[in-house]
Amino acid sequence: MLPASLLLQADVRSIGAGVPLWLLLLLPLAGFLVNAAIAFVRPSSKTLVSVVGPGVVLSSFAVAVACFRQLQAAGAPEALTLNLWRWIEAGDLKIDIAFRLDHLSALMVLVITGVGGLIHVFSVGYMKADAGYARYFAYLNLFIVFMLVLVLGSSMPVLFIGWEGVGLCSYLLIGFWYGVQANADAGKKAFIMNRIGDFGFLIAMFLTWHALGTLDFAEIAARASQLPANGTLVTAIALFIALGCVGKSAQIPLYTWLPDAMAGPTPVSALIHAATMVTAGVYLVVRSNALFALSPTASLVVAVVGAATALFAGTIGLRQNDIKKVLAFSTVSQLGLMFLAVGSGAYVAGIFHLVTHAFFKAVLFLGAGSVIHAMHHAYHSTHSHGDPQDMRNMGGLKQWMPWTSALMWIATLAIAGIPVFSGFFSKDEILVAVFGRGAGQGVFYVLWLVASIASLLTAVYMGRLMMMTFHGANRTGAAEQAQLHEAPWVMTLPLAVLGLLSLAGGLINLPHFAGGHEWLEHWLEPVLAPSHDLVPLVMPEGTTEYGLVGLAALLGVIGLVVGAKAVLRRPTLTATEAVPETGFARVLSGQYFVDAFYDRVIVRPVQWFARTVLWKTIDQWLVDSVAVMGSARLLQGFGWLGSRFETGQLGLYLLVFVAGAVWVLGVVLQ
Amino acid sequence: MAPDLLGPTLALSGILFSIGVLGALLRRNAIILFMCVELMLNAVNLTFVAFARYYGFGGHVLVFFVMTVAAAEAAVGLAIMLALFRHNQTLDLQDINLLHG
To answer: pTM for the whole thing?
Structure first.
């Protein structure tokens, strides 16, 4: 085994110049260009789009697998690099458009192209009847390009291109049906909330350059140890990075954009707002683990924010009736758990949960998409105005959609943390790691408790969701029932593949107690070496570990039972019959009124300031009236005074002329 | 040698010029005004000629220039008058005030 310092040499040796790393990026880019061209030229054409859209992403997945195999064959310190051109050169600052496929990126690329490809296939069925079919796939392909740039970027600025690019695609896809004002507003909200985080990330970049003189991730990792541990500078850098991640990964206090982002098509919610883009924050923290390891303060902040978000969003999820809103808050909550993991230094657990979450949350969203698809068609055919996303209008759908129901149950068991399913292993690893951290810092015991409650809540609201959607009596309406049907195979097939992954995804990091070898742990070792050297993670073993694992599994079972019982206890009223909620339930279904609070405290004051001060006072009054019109009036006044002499009487002109001439003569002759 | 008449000549020139100026200032008919301008020009010519006797031929030459310009001016000026009259049916300068501010 090579010493760790050698592994971190900045000039990671490039292997296999013939490796088609560029192909990985080029394929979806070509797909974007083709689909965009079709969207402009022949928007009604669908056959070519259906082939190109998912085709390029699946081909990209094949390339990713090839790259992954090569990386595997090459051994630990290697990385595939691709240096395209010098982008910025100013003094010592030299930034290349360069990509590096290391062990962490390889995993992310597999998830992005794999899950992304399946969601593309699903979209073929889901968006079949949409007028913006080609435009949709153009955006989706572009998203894949930027997401790959994000995870492959070898330096902060290149990552930032991808970071902003996925934000753009997210905006475009949230507001995909821009004819409705609410959708366009949701897109803007997502974009603006993310700007706050981006500001943090930019500051972090400036500080990193100031402190380390480099923006390349490998060099940052190699040089980070020059900085004093827990110093102000490194803490500031880590906190500003964390601010960027809080925006992107929808954590408190910037999470409110994610539930609104559900305005986009459901596959978009699955791909961008559950499986990939929102996990970019977690990825960035792991990517910067060398900095976070040096700053226990910043790490603790990340952990606390994550735990708080997990609990907060989990409670809101309990009282939502829109199926996508439940899943959105579930995503926020799960991202909180990932944040807690990476904040606790359990980077592998964070990435592990990121991957399994991508699987089971994609199933849940796509399954919800199938349900909404069926509900929409049922309501559409009877010209009813029922809300196809409201779970109060569903119930008993298992009867018509057995596949969707079964696959969503697998994902539900996975997210609830029931043993053998993927989520059990990843969530469990987080909880165990946080508990283990408690031995050093007592506060982590509190965070462990919070996270355990959050995972209990996860099981509760998922049990409620499944019961309200698939079981009990149907509430859709008699006429509509005849129209309910299972989704076409093009939608159920990707769902089945993802369901299988949700079931078996735990295998990638099967812990020792389950007879595994913690493959992911070893795979990510080269990336995480700097932080693991600094802050070794001590995992509880023996009885403590078994106790924690048992407790986590028990919480999952209890949660599901409680959630299911709560629904079955009394018949659910449909959306039109429902009575307004009271008490704390009203607070939860109103999402703690955080949006209203932000509206009062930030949005309206800003709007007032913009309207009253900037617009009416500064622009309209000071600039327009005083400065522009004022100077014009002043000159007009002078002009008027001058024009009084222009009487048109020649005699007067002559008199003035003569008087002037006499005066000049007088002066000259003096 | 003829008697020195410079003083009386300049005095006459001054009187003629003053009459021209006063006429131009006080009269309102454009043709009278025009004639007054001619009177002023000729008063100046008289001065040139008077001085030319003492200072050489420069004065004479200048007088020819002035007369040429005056002739041209008369041609253009009278044409303008004609046009003005056709347009306004009057040559009263108080009624011709298009440039009134």
So the answer is: 0.81
